[in-house]
Amino acid sequence: MNERRALGLALSAVLLWSTVATAFKLTLAELTPIQMLTMASIVSACPLAIICGLQGKLAQLLPTFIANPFYYCLLGLINPLAYYLLLFKAYALLPASQAQAINYSWAITLTLMAALFLGQTIRKQDWLACAASYFGVLVIATQGNLLELQFESPLGVTLALCSTLLWAGYWILNTKNQADPVVGLLLGFLVAIPCAMGLSLYEGASWLTISWQGWLAVSYVGLFEMGITFVLWLSALKSTQNTARISNLIFASPFISLILLATIIGERIHPTTIIGLVFIISGLVIQQMKFSARTKPRKARP
Asked: Which residues are in the EamA domain (predicted)?
């Protein structure tokens, strides 16, 4: 029964994450990246607070933060604040299919950063995985013009790649986190929200021109990209005895997302995006192949 429950939770998370690239583009049609970050963070914090309340963990928030305030401030400034601000800006500058595919290379970035900061040994297959995934990023970013190295949006590609550094760094820092995962996630949002609100006031963008569709889209992003879906995924990993099988389901997400982007918002999917994504996913598969007993930090999402 637990395995069936874990599978259901994981599939729900994968399907929800498959929709967020489309939701990002719909939201960015009306909100700036900073507005999007601010509202999505507020929306995300609400269900996380409710979940903590139902689990009797709200009382842990203040003691957990006071025990290591600098650490939790750093986590919150990285995720959601800096990570999503860079990611949303990358989505604003690039086709969603490209930004999403490049973002999937974060797991490869994690391997390199784990070797640098945690002293883990990089295996030969990890180097092969890195080569395959970053070649895929290059194919996507240049739309196949590898020799000319011409990018549609150099800044967009740079921001998407920087977001992978932030996301990998966040999970490396989380290896030292002894708090309950949901409590830690909620603390990150509580740290980030005042900063995001300050940035939105400094930006001076109008909130009055946002339609109900814009509010609905940003609420969807907050609920199903930045909030509830993490809880579903973490619950699935906690419930299963076969973590590898559950984790491998995430490989379906980017391909489902491409279908949704093409059908819902009519985005043209460049053939090189699919080719590059295949290279990236191939790299991730190679990385997960068990040729050695070395363990790696647990990945919580794509």
From this structure: 6-141, 155-286
Give every residue of the chain whose pLDDT is below 50, as ranges: 292-300
Please give the structure tokens belonging to residue 282. 């191939």
Task: Note the Cα 50 to chain centre separation in Å.
Answer: 22
Residues 4-16: tens digit of each pLDDT: 888 898 899 999 9
CA–CA distance, 5 with 68 (Å, rounded to integer): 35
d(CA 289, CA 286): 5
111 is written with which tokens? 């391997």
Sign of the dihedral defined by the CA atoms of residues 164, 102, 278, 265, in that order: positive
Using CB atoms within 10 Å of the CB of residue 36, give its burial: 0 to 12 exposed, 13 to 18 middle, 19+ buried. buried
- pTM recorded for the entire structure: 0.89
Q: What is the tens place of the pLDDT at every residue in 93-111?
A: 999 999 999 998 988 898 8
Query: What is the token pair recorded at 250?
Result: 């995430």
